[in-house]
Amino acid sequence: MSERIDSEAVERRRARMTRIFADIIQHAQVQCLSRCPYRDRRDLCTARFGCRNQGPVDPQHGLSSCLCDGELDYRGAWEVEDPEAVLAQWRAEADRPPPPPVDPEVQGEKTIRPGAVDCPGRQGATLFDLADDHDVRVDSSCGRMGSCHECVVEVLEGDEILTERGDGERFLADRFRLACQARVASPGAVTFAPLRRNPHVLTERPESHVDACPAVSRQGEEVFRDGEAIDQWRGRLIGLAVDVGTTTVAAELVDLETAESLCRGGFENPQRFGGSDVISRVAYDAQHDGEMHQAIIKALNNEILSMCQHAGVSRHTLYEILVVGNSTMRDLVFGLDVQTIGQRPYKSVTEHECLAGRRTGTALEAGTRQLGLVASAHGRLVSPPLVGSHVGADIAAGLLACDFDLDSGNRIFLDIGTNTEVVIGTPDRIVAASCPAGPAFEGGLVRHGLPACDGAIDTLKAIGSGFQYTTLADADPVGICGSGLVDLLAELKRTGQMTEMGVFTFGDGRAREVAVVDEPLITLSRQDASHLAQAKAASFCGQFILLRMLGIDPGKVQRVELAGGFAHSIDVRAAVSIGFLAPFDPDRVHRVGNAALEGARQLVLDTGRHDRVERLVERIEHIELETTEDFFEVFTEACQFKPMQL
Amino acid sequence: MSEKGGEVPEFIRTTMAELADIPNEFIRNELDEFVERDDERAELIELYSQSAPHLLEIGAAIISGRNEDSDRLTVEALQRGTGALEVMDDGLIAGMALVGIKFRENFIFVPEVLACARAMKAGMVHIEPILSASGIEPLAKVIMGTVKGDLHDIGKNLCIMMLRGAGFEVIDLGVDISADEFIDAVEQHNATLVGMSALLTTTMPNMGRTIDAFIDADVRDDVKIMVGGAPVTPEFADEMGADAYGDNAVECVEVAKRLVGVSR
């Protein structure tokens, strides 16, 4: 063995090992925040010390089971005494001076938004470190190296004390930073919030029976799709229905053989760092190619792993994923170029290709592996067709869920969200329009506005000189969500505290804001009211222009299907009184919950419904609201807080 | 090109190698089962398909955490004349690369990773003398241990894995190590660096007591001492009189390099 080895060659190999190990360490560090490192893949305990979480010994492997539910910090099970007392004893014994007392100011802390961290900056600390200090969880899968882009946080105050944006953060807009990269550079305080992990995503949906007739089937010991064997039989056939909304994503795991629902989940769309509405996401995608696509794929993978684990099924049996969403959201999931949706005539590349005859429909299909999804390697991702322009596959699915195609009376389907869609059917026509409402009713733009989350005020009544309200999860109030804002505007208007123009009448008409809750202070300002006026105006315009075009009296509409977002908890009378909804008969309004998710579920379970949705979409005429001659006048009228008059 | 995700990327299409070309069934199955990303699949298929079957056996032993096999197979490979660098590349590092991916994707956890790292070390043991013969010496000798009263070893073991990978020679004393045991080890091995770990608030002061014992035994100036562990802070490390503090195993290597003067 007289091999002569070059030291540089060894150096390169050491560097490679270090990289592999460093990735491992970084992942371990993140994982340790929620999972005990002594716990092996069988959830058995490999620790050689006594831990309070150790359960009965598993006879096969000779290790204790771990009883830790993962909810609490497992380290508490190891620690035995009061840390301060131990240190004090050591200092006394070693005759060392105690460290200077901690400034009480520094320990003070207040919460202004659920999950937000508001604290003095520790020089040199990253926002991630500060979040750790306050036990606020921030997602990351690269071990804080700035490469996974999952630890996006929104800096609410104190941006100026942080380091400049580095190259790794160039992809982020305004207030958003990567928690692992932004460091405290100068003295001061900072307030930031991670993207919410557990928003109240609407996963409730109309229950309806679907006979399972999926695209994959078991034949003997093999799994078949379209007459072709694609995999060996692994014990289950699982499907996933996903509704990718601009603000939130909802998903449901189903058994493709029994049609049984296995589990539902939801999370905030991580693409929020690219802007809160569709148009800013499109603009963002132009500058940072692939970031939006990667963000949603990673989030879907996390959800797939956790849902499969929760339902106790193998991800390798997940063969069909049916995804719906507005045109931009859907195309971003598939990694398509969305630039054409951002400019007139606002059409997806799939729609352009259809019109040019290069494609027969706007439905999409791709392999899971091709997209890097952690489902079966033989799985596929499918989307039904778009209705047209911004009116996407989510509406197509929602209409299917409401059997819109099987009815022939005057009917309306309204999906209220960041983008509001209106579809109206008469015995002869079906027309659809999209209205960019923006995020004002979903927690954006409005100072104390919130998406649905614990502590959000969801209903409200004016009583005497104040307000009586309820909050989600009965938590202490932290802000107001969409349905609460609708109630608030309606009540201010009803009690004469606000004019149709959104001007507050008290304080000689010069009041800039009204206090809704005194402690903690939750207010509505004139500027908030103005943002809300514009948001509800979008919904007003859509309904008004289509109803007028078809010559339908809203009072005579036989079925009003109210889908999505906060529409689920909206008070119809309040919404009508401020002109958010046309004056429909409240008795004819059905809240259909997340109709898009239900439609997706039906489509993944019953492949026969794809034809139905194709035929339905072909019947729908898409109307471009902005091309209406008197659009500007309608919009001005729509911005006022008063009932719609047709 | 409107469909960005619509087609298989160029670099994959032009690759000749396919999964079936990998001459080891276990590695083939592992790769197929656990590596999801197309680019990583392509890269690993390329790597493994060009490796000799007897080196892939080493990789397989590492991936399954079988250290006796890794030990035996590495010896056999060197005996049949395979170069040390090739054994590192196609056996040891190649195996660990897949381990890293499985861990990142949450298919295995820290205890399994440490078992794999141990198997890798069992092979590296036979490579090191060959490197020394070419004049490539370890960066420094490091004594590592968890202090008296503390039986936690994962953090320390991750540090050791990192240190060895980076080229340090590590003497692992294990857990529950008294001040005397640390001092004896330093003298016996002529080490220049000591790493101490404590995972409990109750045992953290034992780090300070150990450092005091180093002073009493008059060996404090012979070594640099670095400390770490969940309850330990840079301030406390300073208060105890340690030379450096590392927040995690990656920093541990940086700190060690700095202390022995190989970087900054």
Describe this structure in words.
- Chain A has 646 residues and is α+β, with helices and mostly antiparallel strands.
- Among the domains of chain A are: 56 residues, no CATH class; 85 residues, Roll (Ubiquitin-like (UB roll)); 182 residues, Domain of unknown function (DUF4445) (Nucleotidyltransferase, domain 5), CATH 3.30.420.480.
- Helix content of chain A is 28%, strand content 22%.
- Chain A is built from 16 helices and 27 strands.
- About 2% of the residues of chain A have low confidence.
- Chain B has two domains: 118 residues, Methionine synthase domain (Methyltransferase, Methionine Synthase (B12-binding Domains), Chain A, domain 1); 118 residues, Rossmann fold, CATH 3.40.50.
- Chain B has a five-stranded parallel beta sheet, sandwiched between helices.
- In chain B, helix 8 links the parallel strand 1 and strand 2.
- In chain B, 52% of the residues are buried.
- By secondary structure, chain B is an alpha/beta fold.
- The N terminus of chain B is likely disordered.
- Chain B is built from twelve helices and five strands.
- In chain B, helix 5 runs parallel beside helix 7.
